[in-house]
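FAQ
Q: What does a multi-component entry look like?
A: The components come first, one per line:
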Amino acid sequence: MELEYGPEYELFRSEVRQFLVENWTKPVADGAIVEAASFRRQATAKGYLYRGVPQRYGGSEQPADPLKARVIREEFTRARAPREIEGPGVSMLVPTLLAVGEDWQKDRFVAKTLAGEYAWCQGYSEPHAGSDLAALRTRGEIVDGTWRISGQKVWTTLAHRAQFMFALVRTEPDAPKHLGISYLLIDMNQPGVTVRPLRQMSGGREFNEVFLDDARTPADWIVGARGAGWQVSRTTLRHERDLVGGAGATEDAFRKLVELARDARCDGRPALESEDVRQALARIEGYVLAQRFTSYRQMSLELAGQDAGLSGLLNKLNGTEIGHSMANLAQELIGSYGLLTPAPKGERGPEKWIGQIMGSLGVAIAGGASNIQRNIIAERGLGLPREGGAQS
Amino acid sequence: MKFLLSDDQIQLQDAVARFAADTCAAGARRSAFEGETGFDAAFWDGLMALGAGAVSLPLEHGGLGLELLDLALIVEAIGYEAGPGPFLGHVLAGHALSRWGSPTQQAEWIPKLASGATIATVALVEAGSETSHYRWITDLDPASLNGQKAQSPNAELAELLIVGLRDGGLALVAKGAEVGVETCDDIDRTRRLSNVTFKNAAAELLPGGRVDDLLDAARVLVAADAFGGARRCLDMSTAYAKEREQFGRAIGSFQAVKHQLANLAVSVEPARGLYWYAAHAYDRGLEDRAKMASLAKAHLADVFMQAARVMIEVHGGLGYTWEHDAHIWFRRAMFDFAWLGTPQVHRARSAQLSGW
Ligand SMILES: Cc1cc2nc3c(=O)[nH]c(=O)nc-3n(C[C@H](O)[C@H](O)[C@H](O)COP(=O)(O)OP(=O)(O)OC[C@H]3O[C@@H](n4cnc5c(N)ncnc54)[C@H](O)[C@@H]3O)c2cc1C
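Then the predicted structure of the entire assembly, as tokens:
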């Protein structure tokens, strides 16, 4: 058992640090404006970003090395330097295109997506098809060599800023449910696409309804074969599940929760001195650290070329449950003023926790709701009999 | 970074797991559970023949020279089978002797402990205080020991006791007439607890011995046992859910049961690394070792208790019978929950050690 990174990685760490000092920390401290885009280009050239993407598509094409990736993430975070562009384009579409896309599709879309020139939204969910995604009804058919698409997508994050959508569309109406779907790429800037903002419970305006009314897309803007869209989309969902389970983010949130308990008052004394609060925090910390060590173990298994098995399936639900318990405690700690009148905005204070208290529910729903995770764990992880109809 | 077991560790754990499964299937668990002393000779002799008693003892006295992590892996495997007997106290006493015993003490006792010819145990806490030796009364002056210890595992069977002292040190006592053992009618019949009274008992100091460290080692082992037990509860419940039919289908096809078991998997499986790390931190003397011993003990004790409750519920009326073995794990979960301090006690300690 070895928890140190080892000399090779410590050397790598100092290289990354040196790079960051020269290209980010020092210029910024000296008042220079470093453009994120050009910084990302340099960091990619050094092999620090987009490591899984071939160079001809704008990546740095590095051999898979989760430890290096971790060192990079740690150092970039510490220096507050820009990392890979966030969003479904980079995290979901690019891996899918690399896995099953045509060469011209990779040439056309990948590099610009990595550079942040193309923003994407994920058009999967529909009013009648959420967990039961394969029930989706948006129709697509080829007319005169062009796809014509009609239907409605909903809860589409960042659709209002996206140039393109990757969408699941029913193109083979006579085929069985899962075999009638295709994975299409759609330009959002066209008369057949209407985006209507949908406000979130937190007040934010990040997701939308998207109405497709005879929207057009070229015949070859399809990823994978006709009717293979369900399979194609699985690559991306798996990817997103890994992201949401991230142990590092949970640890950050936990540290902030302890700070909140230090600052918050309970009968005029720091809440952190209250025995109830200490118990509650220590209980949550048990789960947070268990998640840390299971992620170390999963990473070590990956390094050793072994499968993480059951534990890999638990990450999203595990993270979600910890998020719920942190929300419950935070709600106690910020107290009635913080909860009921969380202004003023911008200060370090309660309003951030309102975001976590509500946002933890978003995490529980998006990317495979918790009950669906439980189905997956029970059926795929524990081998219990599958439920007729409900897909896990 | 390699947060994984070595091939040797995997082999050792597998060997113990296979042995324990076979011997318990042949009746060791039940016979010890129903018996007078909680001892099963076949189980004990077999474990010793595998070298499990020698794992963390020094090489020069016939031990394998391994660490607490290796011991914890064995304890997990035994916990999975609810293997009965004095192993826990025995290896803790051996660990104390290896770490702090004088050359003479080691030469005299360690070979006998390594083979299991002599059974040893620890007598650490006193009624009312599981974390602070300052509240204890047991004292060594200068070679005679007086006091009373609570909840010493399998003291009835032991010939050698390692005893915690009020000044935080440790004493070694060969059991004689001045040592009174009163075995309790305890919950976990696979690991019997006794109160032990010392009246001017002949004893020696373990030079430099630290009861706080020994308690932490014990907590790590309890956490390992709890992980093994919890894993077993999940496995038994899953297997039963696949086989038991009601309403014309396997109960494991009902979503309510699936979700109960999925939730259990989420609480059990990720906790494995918690006891691994706590053992590793102890072995390396890392700064957070005491905190992690407490946190791992608290967390896994709760997880095991919850797993045992779910298991009984999933087994229905069958699980509620004395004949079915499910309650043997339930009782072991109660032992792991309470012995050397409940989760609440250890969360309070962990909070303090975190600087909160
Ligand atoms: C913040 C946020 C961002 C999102 N972003 C996007 C996006 O960018 N693109 C996109 O396509 N979608 C997006 N979604 C939609 C998301 O994928 C769906 O909300 C999710 O899949 C659940 O579907 P639903 O809302 O229809 O809930 P439903 O499927 O109606 O589920 C409602 C409840 O029933 C439970 N349930 C459903 N089926 C079962 C079953 N078989 N067994 C047990 N329980 C069941 C669920 O667990 C849930 O608790 C987003 C959602 C949120 C909250």
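Q: Is there any commentary attached?
A: Sometimes. For this entry: Residues 17 and 78 of chain A are 10 Å apart (CA to CA).
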